[in-house]
Design goal:
By secondary structure, the protein is mostly helical. 62% of the residues lie in helices and 0% in strands. It starts with 32 loop residues before the first helix and ends in a 30-residue tail after the last helix. Bound molecules: fe (ii) ion (2 copies).
Length: 342
């Protein structure tokens, strides 16, 4: 530190204004009752993935192909869930910089913590199934396992490209815009975990899916409450960005909820065939990944739910012909444009 540091306190009675944005709200305003309620629910419903009934999970009762196939699904989920804690931590910082009301800050803190739980759950499942804590350095035991590891490496490569774009997007966009993307992710997540819960045979997975699904339901409610607060006063410029982000969300999240659109995801030609083979294998072992048709219908329903929320605020919806939804044409979306999270 230089000796010539200016001392304000020698010159004035009160300090100068602190430059904004500053990550330092010395205030605890509370205006949105609903958000306070969700925060309180998050404390009541908190759970610990390590305390699930892992002792009832006999991994040796599965064949290696089944183990590798089920681990592959958790790996696919991790491509989304393992990035969620830093993604929401970044958004949490933004709520502090904006001096958001206290319940918004608390809700974002809870989402960050929940998402870390989901990522921990992925890790516990993968580590047990593979007997190794890292699906990318694991040594596959079967031919299917080898092909799935190749898939996993390509998924990881694709997912890794979106972080830099996201970091640039967070300061650039209003919280209101970020929320539409979050809503897309949360509705998608709530949908898939509900399905996985009803189809799971293994107690530890069933309980895990139930908890994760409940968390995602709260995340959805947080998005809706903030949208209800902010959307009525939103300008048309932000509305257009949201339309584009919803289309981006479809392309991004389809990889886990449906099948990855190949003009957006950079994946090898045998990717989908390998993934379908693994899903069939996992289903046969009582790990109920929805079939192609069921996924398509569920994803369509989830998107219609997003649409019904945005319709209320007069936000044009993008065309999603892949699942039979008409709307505004949106093209030229790159991974770098993506905000959606899970
Ligand atoms: Fe999650
Ligand atoms: Fe979530």
């Amino acid at each position: 530190m230089s000796e010539h540091k200016e001392r304000f306190s020698d010159q004035m009675e009160f300090p100068p204004e602190t430059p904004q944005p500053n990550v330092y709200p010395l205030s605890w305003h509370s205006h949105t009752r609903k958000l306070q309620e969700i925060w309180e629910a998050s404390l009541r419903e908190h759970w610990d993935p390590e305390k699930l009934p892992w002792d009832t999970f006999d991994v040796d009762s599965y064949s290696w192909e089944e183990r590798e196939s089920i681990a592959y699904w958790w790996t696919l989920l991790s491509v989304f869930d393992a990035s969620a804690p830093p993604v929401f931590a970044e958004a949490l910082v933004k709520t502090y910089e904006l001096h958001e009301e206290d319940p918004v800050r608390k809700c974002f803190f809870s989402v960050t913590s929940d998402e870390q739980n989901h990522e921990i759950m992925c890790g516990l499942a993968i580590t047990r199934l593979l007997g190794h804590p890292d699906p990318l350095t694991y040594e596959p035991k079967t031919d299917l396992g080898r092909r799935l590891q190749k898939n996993a490496k390509w998924l990881y490569f694709n997912g890794g490209r979106y972080w830099t774009g996201y970091k640039k997007a967070v300061p650039r966009y209003d919280l209101a815009v970020l929320f539409s993307s979050f809503l897309m992710g949360e509705i998608a997540a709530a949908t898939i975990f509900k399905q996985m819960y009803s189809n799971a045979r293994e107690a530890v997975f069933k309980e895990g899916f139930q908890n994760i699904g409940r968390d995602e339901g709260r995340h959805m409610a947080i998005c809706m409450a903030v949208m209800e607060r902010d959307y009525p006063k939103m300008g048309s410029e932000n509305k257009a960005i949201i339309t584009k982000q919803i289309r981006a969300g479809y392309l991004f999240l389809s990889a886990v909820l449906f099948e990855p659109p190949m003009d957006f995801w950079d994946l090898p030609g045998d990717f989908i065939a390998n993934q379908r083979e693994a899903e069939e294998m996992a289903r046969g072992a009582g790990f109920g990944i929805p079939t192609y048709e069921a996924k398509k219908e569920n994803w369509r329903q989830a998107i219609i739910n997003v649409k019904s929320v945005l319709d209320v605020y007069g936000i044009p919806f993008p065309a999603i012909p892949e699942v039979g939804i008409t709307g505004e044409e949106v093209s030229n979306i790159a991974l770098e444009d993506i905000i959606p999270v899970f």
